[in-house]
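Exam revision sheet. Question 4 asks you to relate a sequence to its structure. Input first:
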Amino acid sequence: MNILEKMFGNNTLSCDEELNILDIEDNIFYSLDNKVSIYIKIEPILFEYLSSDEKSIIVKRLTRELAGERDIIKIITMSLPISTVEVDKYLDEKRNSAKNSFKRSMLLKQIDDINKLSYRGEMIEKQVIIQLFQSSVDNVNEKLEKRAKEFVIKLQNAGITSHILNKREILQLFNSFLNMKLKEEHINDVWSDDDE
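Answer key, structure tokens:
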């Protein structure tokens, strides 16, 4: 008998149960514990390139904008492999326009090296996701969507770019917990409505 069987007995959880997934419709996530959530992705801010005054301004604005928030929010911070699609496209254009064969071969090697580093999880970026949630009640979808839109506007007023995740992006977020190395462009290979 292995250690996990000793700890949990025959109580095994499916992936849906482990991640608390009941359903996802549009940008609304329904959990097994009767909660309804919306996820907001915060676009990265390059704080290391900002002056102390610029950092202070952003923090003060954010504090002022979120001072009225009384409901619980959950902040999810995770490191994920960087998507290399744009980098590959840029370097491939440079490679195709290069007249020197040595330069072309070096650019091809650079593309390959970047993809290997990303695939192995050695090139990562921090992602911050905010989860707004509440218990399932009448008109919960409308209330939660209104709250999420207001939250995005508050962040925008503080100088922070964000957007509400759609179904595909929520699936990608959950898949990140399952497989940290899966690239964004392959998400449809794993999660698809075609089989329903």
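Marking note for examiners. Confidence is low (pLDDT under 50) at residues 180-196.
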